[in-house]
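Problem: given the chain below (450 residues), write out its structure.
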Amino acid sequence: MAREQPINAGVPGARPQGGAAPKPEQPPAQARRPAAKPERRRREKRPRKPIPGALKAIAGLFVLAIVFIVAAILGGGGGNEEADGPAPVSGTPSTPAEAPATQTPEDLGYPAFATANTTRVGGADAADNAAGVALAVHPSIEPAQQPDAVTVVDGGDWTTALAAAVLTAPPVGAPLLVSETDEMPDVTAEALAALGPRGGRETAGAQVFAIGAATVPADLRTNRLRAGGSVGAAAIAALREKLSGSPPQHIVVASSAEPALAMPAAAWAARSGDPVLFTAPDKLDKPTATALEANPKVPVYVLGPSAAISSNVVREIDQAGGRVRRISGEDPVANAIAFARYADGSFGWDVNDPGHGFVVARSEEPLDAAAAAPLSAAGTWGPLLLTDSADTLPAALRGYLLDVKPGYTTDPTRAFYNHIWVIGDQESIGVSEQAEMDKLAALARIGGGK
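Solution.
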């Protein structure tokens, strides 16, 4: 049950994680060829204007990355609810006394790109979001900021896209981009050029890890894993083990039939380096069983309720691998929260108190979980949470964010802060939801301290 006040009220000794919120900027528009989106069911792809030139687009991506970083570092430090909010992206907001009850946050010029406690990666699809996230984590203005390699996934295979998030974890550190089977979207090509992967010892010289049928440039040193589905996920796990030089510490098994229940696994894979394998609801997939048999002493964590992965499958996993534990919630929103709260030794986020980063995406967009995974391996290192609506924050998510809401009694600069990355445009997660998340993440004053 959510607490009525922040749980760290009166804690004076925490070190600040950031400073004043920046004035948000409107991110540059970016054009690309529409990517195949089998999972998107809510809206049609919006038409875009052609890109005038690659250099201009790359420069735009650089600017976008810089804005993301400034917003995350400065705005991510959290804010006092009593302090002034950031300047709006456009328009002049009315004062509360002047604003009619029917006005929406958009009418008031709500700063949807970044607020004091949230930062939006507002792409129209997963390819856009992946490009924005990759350049936020690796701005690549200087050679030291460039990744050794980039993972390019097939936008038509969400299972291998989620599994590929494990390559984001150290020591490989490869951000993820989304491509197609017949061509690479413009935004992906421009981001890849801007990232400028050079290859390195940790990537065995590869500049690109191409997953499945994803199209990649022919002039880059590429390590391609052609398999998809459960076979592809097992191949990615084997590649990760080969590159890191050590077996996994834990393994996550997710549902191949319920993408929304599997989504949180990508963030943990990026955070920990623990591979993600997949199974059908009623019978353990053979590639997964083979991978588990190769690691018989590695603990296995099944993600999702018995309706998604049955007890019979759990028994098969127990026979094939190490000890098994289940992490579950009755629906995708609750399932993601359960994973965020979970802890078992060195496994699990154990986020049950203030002072953390969070990533929020739509439950209908599994590719967005893969696109956002690098945010869980850098910056504020946050778990993935889900919303199932574009208009209303789910009650379970609201309760969880309230439960970990930060507070202070005397000195806000010595408090814990929360920061939330919002993934997707306003058709995926509306500004009213973002406004509520900003309020729930804001630092609140508790008690009568001066």
